[in-house]
Amino acid sequence: AADALPSRAVTNFGHYLDWCWEVARARKVRARTLVLDVKYDQAHLLCEPWWSVGSLPRIFFLIRERGWKVIDIHRTNVMGLVVSNQIAIKTKIYHSTNLAPGETQSAKVRIDPQRLEREVATTESSYRRVSDHFREYKKYLPISYEEMFAEEGDFSPAVLERVSRFLGVENKFDAKPKL
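The structure corresponding to this sequence follows.
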């Protein structure tokens, strides 16, 4: 039970990462890179007791301490992000890949203008704070979501090339998004 104490959160997270490595290497013996997908709205889940209210979540400091690489994906059109999220929540369709071929999303949602303004401001503030935190960090690669995809919906070849160079791996990425 003592292992579950908040004071052991970073240690437990380290154990979880070790387990992820074991699973990755069992599946692919030559695995050299472990990728974690940390969403902005989940970053606070790794916490420590007495962490300062208003500080960035602990994981952002841990990334720098451990020298991990960061690919930080931001939406340039933050208002579009908020509206898209509201539509996804209402329709329970979170990715266009969940639609039938040729089908488009046509849901109508009512969005409270004050909530929209608040969410846009909060998201922009979060983006700015994280970008500032990693500004001089050499292992930080910012990418805008809008530049990630080519016209036909595949990942952009230029972005795949930037990511492969950044990770130090050969660009053998499948350009078809998988969810």
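The longest helix spans residues 113-134.
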